[in-house]
Amino acid sequence: MADNAIAEVKTRHETDLLALPNVTGVAIGERAGKPVIKVFVTEKLSQAALAPEERVPTSLEGYDVDVDAIGFIEAEGEQGGSNRDA
Q: Residue 34 to residues 6, 10, 64: CA-CA distances in angstroms?
């Protein structure tokens, strides 16, 4: 089944992808009706700004890789003594 195959590819590469500069997440998505591996980064950088080993690959085991800049992710939490239960 194709869904399981891309999930296995994602799982095999997720740790290495998350170790790359600016990478904040990895998921499975779709582009033009085909499954892709999504890599989320804080900002997109030019290829010239990254060493070859720091670059997100364009494909993994036959699946295209899409890179999406999503900025910084912060956990939402209580701040300033606000009380959500009130």
A: 11, 15, 9
23's tokens: 């990478």
Q: For 13-46, what is each residue's pLDDT tens digit? A: 999 999 998 999 999 999 999 999 999 999 998 8
Domain ranges of the chain: 2-69
Q: What is the DSSP letter of 79?
A: -
What does the DSSP assignment read for 14-72?
HHHHHTSTTEEEEEEEEETTEEEEEEEESS---GGGS-GGGSPPSEETTEEEEEEE---
Please identify which residue in the block is written with the tokens 């900025």.
71
CATH 3.40.50, domain 2-69, yes or no? no
If one counts every other C-beta atom within 10 angstroms of the C-beta of residue 53, the result is 6
Tell me the per-residue pLDDT of 60-70, one tens digit each, with 9 for 90 and over: 999 999 999 98
